[in-house]
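Quick one: structure tokens for this chain, please?
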Amino acid sequence: MHRRRLLLAVPVLLLFLGLPAAAHHGWAGYQSAEFQLEGTVSRELTFEGAHAAMQVRVGTQVWELTLAPPAATTRAGLTKGIIPVGATVVINGHRHVDPKRFEVKTERVTWNGRTFNVYPGRT
């Protein structure tokens, strides 16, 4: 009886262990070419989910910025509240492969003469 329960529990456990990896924002969905964007911060840095995120407005378009995981983003010096809403920033990274999605996997954020390199191994 215990063996049968164990055999039923193992696949369920493996499924749950795989969920964080499936939710992770890998690089495969982004173009290989470097992409640069200059805009105005329209939503400050958040640390919700697997990656830090921001929004930047360029003209009438709002771009979603997916940064490194919270610990790496913080190590780069980019912390909540450091860049105010309305500030002009330059973003370097990789645009999403779907041209209808205005999203950038962000490697660097430059603001006020300071560069926050959230993925230092990728530059």
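The CA atoms of residues 2 and 8 lie 10 Å apart.
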